[in-house]
Amino acid sequence: MSDLNKLGLAEARDALRKGDVTSVELTESCLKAIDAADALNAFVHKTPEIALERAKAADARIKDGDAPSMCGLPIGIKDLFCTKGVPSQAASKILEGFKPEYESTVSQQLADAGAVMLGKLNMDEFAMGSSNETSIYGNAVSPWRRGNDDAQLTPGGSSGGSASAVSADLCLAATGTDTGGSIRQPAAFVGITGIKPTYGRCSRWGIVAFASSLDQAGPMTKNVRDAAIMLETMCGHDPKDSTSTELAVPNFEAMLTGDIKGKKIGIPKEYRMDGMSAEIEKLWTDGAAMLKDAGAEIVDISLPHTKYALPAYYVIAPAEASSNLARYDGVRYGRRATLAQGDGITEMYEKTRAEGFGHEVQRRVMIGTYVLSAGFYDAYYNRARRVRTLIKKDFEDVFAAGIDAILTPATPSASFGLGEMTEADPVQMYLNDVFTVTVNLAGLPGISVPAGLDKQGLPLGLQLIGRPWDEGDLLNTAYALENAAGFVAKPGKWW
Amino acid sequence: MSIDQSTAAKVAKLARIKVEDDALPALASEFNTILGFIEQLNEVDVEGVEPMVSVEPMRLKRREDVVTDGNQQDKVLANAPDAREGFFAVPKVVE
């Protein structure tokens, strides 16, 4: 077999079980692809020794029979996950040199299942961004281009390195995290699948915290089946995360029948934004038609507080970030600024954080500080939390009325050029998450499925939103959409 | 609500982030853009609505108040920028 790195998880698993390939062969193929793809800047810490060691162990396990699905499959890990003895710096200067003494629960579960870690993936600093342009490692680059134009495009963010690596076949799949859209938006930008599960499905332990009430990990994969396989391994109750839920994790893959007859799919009118491009509008209409052809019933619904999701998010997420990021003080881990003669502890904090945090992170920490400060807590933070209650209720109402899943565009546009948004005000960048952020606020599962190309030849994705804890049903609806959309485009190799 | 330079300086101080004086006008202006966007929330009628604490109604689990780990001083200090004699070292705090 050649080009083993181009396989998906399910295909590679089946080939491993049949004995057609070994994990070492798969891993070597990916390592070679990674070394040839430095132009994408997706892998920022390569771990070939760990990879080959785990691949050998996986091969032995497969030989002994009954190896789990993920056994022997080479994947990338977002830099936000703490990985024991391997740099884990959330793409921030302030965590320069940090090598955790422990492993995140999610990456541990993947390792226990035999998955092979190839290295750490680029991202926006502390997962704050929508274009992977706030990373200390520099921009991750999309493997996609606008026709013959050689302008570099963003793979989206914050899981930009994960998106770029999976799309360019540097790994079979990758982990991502999603606080406001950071799995689904980059997945849509590069034509891959990404699912954010219900809040509480995946343990947050050992994942560098951004906004704890919104953060969830999830897989970024080449297709829906792969997402089902990898999500199952990532999920599960963890006593070390007090918000992780004690619910059995179903066999998601076994739920992929493709049969969605009689399912009610909601189309929320509030997602038809002013100035929505005709291409996105058409993609959405086509997606609804595909689900209808597959036997689903399409229902117009209303989620009246949608408009207020982004402003509520930009209170709640920075507030939680300002609290979470208070731990970066230059004392316990990471980098401390060089101090001048006579500098005290306050100067140490202030200089360390000014040097260590990038511009966007500083801005969000300060906005969070402001909305939590005395006199403004009620006006901003408590009001945003009340609006969040209403946003969640919007979803509860439509699900109570019998809706099984909600179909929306994943992003307001296709990928844009790196640097194109530099002059825009921060709010313009935040609008990237307009369709995804509601899902985090309501704690629901959401999946982005590639559904077409725009006229420049760039991928566009559709999002499906499911009922809480019903990822299996959501994945099955996504599977039906994937089958109908038949998206097979790949970026032409230029790197 | 508009943020002036002195409020921006106060917020930076509270956040323990050093911001040079000449950067304050731009910072205040960015804050105002973002807060202007957030002001939309004032249009929503939130009368009688409880602020969300957790998306999933849950009561934090309790456990016995006992030591569950420890004796990891080396690991705890392994990533410290300045660790000496088994402690984190910082500039002088008390005169």
Automatic annotation (TrEMBL), chain A:
Domain Amidase span(s) in chain numbering: 25-475
SUPFAM superfamilies linked to this entry: Amidase signature (AS) enzymes
> Which sites are catalytic?
K78 (charge relay system), S158 (charge relay system), S182 (acyl-ester intermediate)
Keywords for this protein: ATP-binding, Ligase, Nucleotide-binding, Protein biosynthesis
Q: What is its EC number?
A: 6.3.5.7
- Top-level EC class, please? ligase
Listed under subunit, the entry gives:
Heterotrimer of A, B and C subunits.
Q: From the Swiss-Prot or TrEMBL record, give the protein name.
A: Glutamyl-tRNA(Gln) amidotransferase subunit A
Q: Which gene encodes it?
A: gatA
TrEMBL record, chain B:
**From what superkingdom does this record's organism come?**
Bacteria
Enzyme class name: ligase
| One Pfam assignment | GatC
UniProt keyword annotation of Ribosomal protein present: no
Q: Which InterPro entries match?
A: Asp/Glu-ADT_sf_sub_c, GatC
- Report the EC code(s) recorded for this entry: 6.3.5.-
**Keywords attached to this entry:** ATP-binding, Ligase, Nucleotide-binding, Protein biosynthesis
Give me the reactions it catalyses.
L-aspartyl-tRNA(Asn) + L-glutamine + ATP + H2O = L-asparaginyl-tRNA(Asn) + L-glutamate + ADP + phosphate + 2 H(+); L-glutamyl-tRNA(Gln) + L-glutamine + ATP + H2O = L-glutaminyl-tRNA(Gln) + L-glutamate + ADP + phosphate + H(+)
Q: What is the stated purpose of this protein?
A: Allows the formation of correctly charged Asn-tRNA(Asn) or Gln-tRNA(Gln) through the transamidation of misacylated Asp-tRNA(Asn) or Glu-tRNA(Gln) in organisms which lack either or both of asparaginyl-tRNA or glutaminyl-tRNA synthetases. The reaction takes place in the presence of glutamine and ATP through an activated phospho-Asp-tRNA(Asn) or phospho-Glu-tRNA(Gln).
Protein family = Belongs to the GatC family.
User: Assembly and partners?
Assistant: Heterotrimer of A, B and C subunits.
Protein name, per record:
Aspartyl/glutamyl-tRNA(Asn/Gln) amidotransferase subunit C
What is the originating organism of this protein?
Ruegeria haliotis
Q: In the record, what lineage is assigned to the organism producing the protein?
A: Bacteria, Pseudomonadati, Pseudomonadota, Alphaproteobacteria, Rhodobacterales
Give the gene that encodes this protein. gatC
